[in-house]
Every structure is written in C-alpha cells, then in structure tokens.
Amino acid sequence: MDLLKKNTQFSANEIASARTSSLEYCEKIINNVSRSFALGINLLNGELKKSVLIGYLLCRIIDTVEDDLSLETQVKEKYLKDFLSCFDNIENSYAYSRINSALKGDKHHLELVKNTHQVFQVYFTLSQNTQNILKKWVSEMCHGMIYFVTKQPKGIRIQNIKEYKNYCYFVAGTVGYLLTDLWREYACKLSEKNYIELNKYSGIFGEALQTINILKDIAWDAKYENSIYIPQEFLLKNGSSHENILDEKYYRQNEKAVKELILIAHENLRASLIYIKEISKFNFRIRFFCIFPLLMAFATLRKIENAPNLLTPEKTIKVSRPEVKKIIRMSFLSALSNKLMLRAVQQISSK
Question: What's the average model confidence in pLDDT over 54-75?
Fold first, then answer.
C-alpha cells in the first residue's frame, strides 16, 4: 500500500519513512543501471543530486521499454503513453510498475521498471520547479520515442542527417536541456547570460555522447537490435545501403559512411567543451559530472578510429579499466581548470 496516499491511518513519520526508503532505493539502483553517469551523480549533493538522480532514472525506465524488442508496436506505444500519466499522481506509477512482468531485457533495468513507483515517490518530494523541469524534458523524450516507434515499427532505419539529429535530440539532446535547466535552478554563479550560452550547446552535448554510443555499436545494433542509425544517405553516397551494412563485400563503402559520422562526432565533442566552459569552476561537482562522460567519449572515439574493423558485430570497443581510472583523475583536475580540461582532451585523443 502506498504510504503517500492521503489516508489518516498513516502518520507523518510513516510517510517520511516511506520516502526515505524510496530515495535509498534510487541511490542504490543507479549504480546498476548506469556506467558513466553514476559516478557523477554520486558526487553531486543536496537537492541537485536528488533531481539529477530521479531525472536519469525516469529516462532509463522509458528507455527500457523503448529498447524491448519482444513488445508489439501497439503495446510499446501504450506503455510509453501510460508512463506519462505517472506525472499526474503517485497511484498511476504503482499501476505502471506492474508492466515489468511483460518486459524482457537487462535484469537491473527490469527491476527499475518494477520499482517505478519508488522513483515517483521521490519525484513528488522535489520542488515544484524541479518537477516541472523533469516532467517537461522526460515527456519530450517519451513523445519522441513514441514517434520513432510508430513510424518505424520493424526497426529503426535512419534515412538522412536531419532525421539522425532529430532522433538524437529526442533520446539524448533532451537530457542535455534537462540538465541545463537543473544547473540554472541549483548552480551557484550561473548568470542568465551563462544559461543562454549553455542552452546553445545543450542539445549538442547530448548528441555528442549519443553519437559515440552509436558508433561503438553499429554492427551490434544492426545484427542483434535490428536498428541502423547510420543515415541511409551516407551509405548510398558511398555505394552501400542499410541492407548491406553487415555485408563484408561492402565493408569499404560502409567504412566511408561511418567515417562521415565520426567527423560529426568530433564536431559535437568539441562543441561540448564550449558547453562546459560556460559552467563556473565554483560548480566543481557539476563540471565533473559533465567532464567525465565527455572525456570517456573522447577515449572511446579514439579506440573506434584505431579499431581494425569499424563494423564488428561484437562489443569489443571498450576503454580499459586502467584508462578509466586515469580519466577519473583527469576529470577531477579538469573540473578545476578549463586549461587542464583541454590538455586532458589532447592527451586522451592522441594516444
């Protein structure tokens, strides 16, 4: 039974205890459902930490639904639409948690869906402004997922660069805007001018990280997820197509198309550095949160470019543990200085 329901049999202490339990759950599960963001979230503090934590988990819940290949299109669309009703009241999130039994995927992701109500219990303890920010951008992401799920029910097939950027906006750019609005709400010494400049690059920051994820898993996504994100126009221009993405006879043509996306990745990552420069060094924790995944992205892109085969269907492109530890140290230093951040990028990219 939901201790947050308006029922006189529950005391204020019992309600507070339920909320504390839900927050503890969210703080625990984040370490199982995120690789690059858990470290940064755990370094944040206060209401900002809670807000970013809940924002990430809400996005992960709908991403779990969107990624489930076992669901019929109509069912997936229904589950995504039903999720939006959870923002209206806590009772809806309890009903939503039960869809877990119909899903397939990573066990930790499924556990999170099963506990959607706990995430929303914490959501409803946030300030009204913060609730509005999360609802706005997570709903935008959800609407975008619904659009692509219904438009391409048999599997994602990106046709051109415009559609690619549209896709990246919905699944990752929205996160960039969500974060920027939270920085505005909680960061110190963040002027309106800084906020305006940050917003110019918020979407690019999200797109940059998404592009790296796409590049490292091109063939895996095509073979096992039935999704091809390399724009068809890039492939056609170089003498291939979506149908030939895994055909070894078209490897050179496919490689040329992939390299066009790599150029976009470089542009986006460089633009993302401008985003971070707009965040004052007084916001050390926020800067680390942004810098760590960005430096990881630079390291991953280097490995992608040096890989003997850009289209292997196995997940072999991975930053080593020793280098991850080194990048963590670099991120702490970079959070103190833009000069050190640029030096770290140069060092990581030139290995």
Answer: 96
Phi, psi of 228 (to 5 degrees): -125, 115
* Sign of the CA dihedral with 275 first, then 278, 281, and 283 last: negative
CB 41 within 8 A of CB 289: yes
Q: What is the pLDDT of residue 13?
A: 65
216 phi-psi bin (left φ>0, alpha ψ -120 to 50, beta other) = alpha
C-alpha 214, offset from chain centre: 12
- If you average pLDDT over residues 16-34, what whole number do you get? 90
Ranges of beta strands (E only) in 90-218 are none
155, 227 Cβ separation under 8 angstroms = yes
For 28-43, b where at least 16 C-beta lie within 10 A, e where not — what string? ebbeebbebbbbbbeb
**In angstroms, rounded to a whole number, what is the distance separating the alpha carbons of residues 20 and 345?**
40
Residue 7 scores a pLDDT above 60: no
Q: What per-residue string of b and e applies to 178-191 under the rule 16 or more CB within 10 Å gives b?
A: bbbbbbbbbbeebe
Give, in degrees to the nearest 5, the angle at Cα 17 between 116 and 63: 15
Q: Give, in degrees to the nearest 5, the angle at Cα 118 between 112 and 120.
A: 105
List pLDDT tens digits, range 210-254.
Answer: 999 999 999 999 998 899 999 999 999 999 999 999 999 999 999
For 87, which DSSP code? Answer: G
Mean pLDDT of 333-343: 97
Average pLDDT estimate for 23-48: 95
Q: What is the pTM of this model?
A: 0.93
SS3 314: coil
